[in-house]
Sequence to fold (426 residues):
Amino acid sequence: MKLYGYFRSSAAYRVRIALNLKGLAYTQAPVNLVKGEQRSGANLARHAQGLVPVLETDEGAQLTQSLAICEYLDERHPDPALLPANATGRARVRALAHVVACEIHPLNNLKVLKYLVGELGVDDDAKLAWYRHWISEGFDALEAMLTAENGTGAFCHGDTPTLADICLVPQVFNAERFECDLSTYPTIRRIAERCNDLEAFQKAAPGEQPDAG
Amino acid sequence: MKLYGYFRSSAAYRVRIALNLKGLAYTQAPVNLVKGEQRSGANLARHAQGLVPVLETDEGAQLTQSLAICEYLDERHPDPALLPANATGRARVRALAHVVACEIHPLNNLKVLKYLVGELGVDDDAKLAWYRHWISEGFDALEAMLTAENGTGAFCHGDTPTLADICLVPQVFNAERFECDLSTYPTIRRIAERCNDLEAFQKAAPGEQPDAG
Fold:
């Protein structure tokens, strides 16, 4: 398989973790988001939104949207599972994943930050406050869910990594990069550290990628 | 089952469509987002983010995040299916759904619009431009995917409604409500109209809910 991504893209980072957890071989084709390569004709032909990641399967299908790709990998390569066996547990894991993927990350995307600065004339301080606001709002909820709900174990759900951890770790990476205060999120930090003990997560980290600048 | 929602919430609208497509009985418990009832202790106990929807199952589980709920319903009540049988088709349907759920809708949420006006002092015109910008960017991509890719049929994927249509229709409803120009999206409009021919979609529409104002 071939992964079109970018070392710092949260969404590509998620897919790298999933591929590594599954032990699947893949090559990487970097698309430089800072240079605008995602808007090139070649990338738009693969991804109508002009984004990354795109996973090209061995059958030649070009899959987009990181969570859709992770679910695909889990269906095609079920072992080890990224979702628990029972429907209620699966719903919990997906809900935790979606707090990151549908509530935090979409607001802190490069294209959104560019709109804030360009169209709305927001200054650097207000941009950083925006960034941190959505992380803290989302992490407040995640921390509450992870401490109050029964399913939490060594990882977000139980004692093996799931789709929820795959979303959490790149978001924690971004939060640390933008120096967000994570002192009030002991459970999030504990789980992210546990994940980062694993080679699958280590090898997926932005600094380990061939295009890391 | 019991659905905590709000008539105009896009996310609750998705869950109503899914429940109706499955032919499942449910009662509704409205949470008035304009009055701020989502921040009440009762709602926060159900949903740590202080949002809707929450689906309370007959076993007493309280499920959050609309797409996680729809996937749960599809797993527990497989007929009629909301996802195609093969993994590549499922990835495509989820990707189409996520264009709406992870790229358009999170940016146009009530809490985001409030932040723009409150913290960033954005005026009404700029707020409306923001709203329309993310819809048009997302719909440009969706229209391209729906016209260029093989899977599209009477609905977003094939000839029966899927998770992609469940996300599309509430987003089209919002676009129309904010008078976005949809003339360049003939495929999106065709599919949304086809969906709205079905009773499951009609009965889920905001104007049909008990709390419609």
